[in-house]
Amino acid sequence: MGAVWAEEILESDAGPIRVRVYRGKVAAKAPPLVLHLHGGAFLGGSAKCGHLVSTLLADAGAVVVAPDYCKAVKDPFPAALKFTYGLLGTMCKGRGQLASKKSALFVAGEEAGGNLAAGLALKARDVALGGLQGQILLSPMLDPSVATGSFRKTQAGEMNCKWADGWKHYLGFGACHPYATPGYSLRLAGVAPALVVTAEDDPMRDESMNYARRLREAGVSVHEHVLAGKTGWPNAYCDDTGVRPEWGETVRGFFTEFFRETGALAH
């Protein structure tokens, strides 16, 4: 443990982008390079909010690039996807400066960031972006119906739902492009291997498990985990107390195992 981060500027086709770059204290010769996208229901959040997950990824052996991205209130789909895809391309071309020319490239995200990560994996397949080796999805927002069994159970009695509001702003006037709603995509074959992590008390549990099942049925390699007990996900991902939660080391272990299984880290 003990990842550190620094603010860096990446030069992209759209101009300079300010990001956080996380690195573990012990680095492999060619560590995995991960684009990590924070949660926030498309309405809020920041790279600072994603600090905990970025740190866990770095402690698992990765170099992690964590940007802020545009909010759906002002910029609905496809603005955030377009921005993050451009950044992913910049990382692909410049991986030698960030990590190593031999580093494997991954996308990762929790909640709304998980939606973007899944959408990026679909787009990377379709435009043949070289080198995307895996997608890491934590409680991903994939189903805009917000009506699954797990969602109804955990949100019982709630009058206002930030996730429903987030979907409304993100999709605008009913857009259901597969990159915007990966859970509705009819063509999943050929996307990068996936690590899908959810929890028993996670409102996104059912849509996460359904997506993992459909990826597997499409022939995609999937690692799937459902944590038992109370996690407080997805709100608990944004923890700025500095105290690592009980599930932290378990999730870090999932990351390390996935990097190894995909060949991004030596066994």
From TrEMBL:
<dbReference type="Pfam" id="PF07859">
    <property type="entry name" value="Abhydrolase_3"/>
</dbReference>
<dbReference type="InterPro" id="IPR050300">
    <property type="entry name" value="GDXG_lipolytic_enzyme"/>
</dbReference>
<feature type="domain" description="Alpha/beta hydrolase fold-3">
    <location>
        <begin position="34"/>
        <end position="229"/>
    </location>
</feature>
<dbReference type="InterPro" id="IPR029058">
    <property type="entry name" value="AB_hydrolase_fold"/>
</dbReference>
<dbReference type="GO" id="GO:0016787">
    <property type="term" value="F:hydrolase activity"/>
</dbReference>
<keyword id="KW-0378">Hydrolase</keyword>
<dbReference type="InterPro" id="IPR013094">
    <property type="entry name" value="AB_hydrolase_3"/>
</dbReference>
<protein>
    <submittedName>
        <fullName>Alpha/beta hydrolase</fullName>
    </submittedName>
</protein>
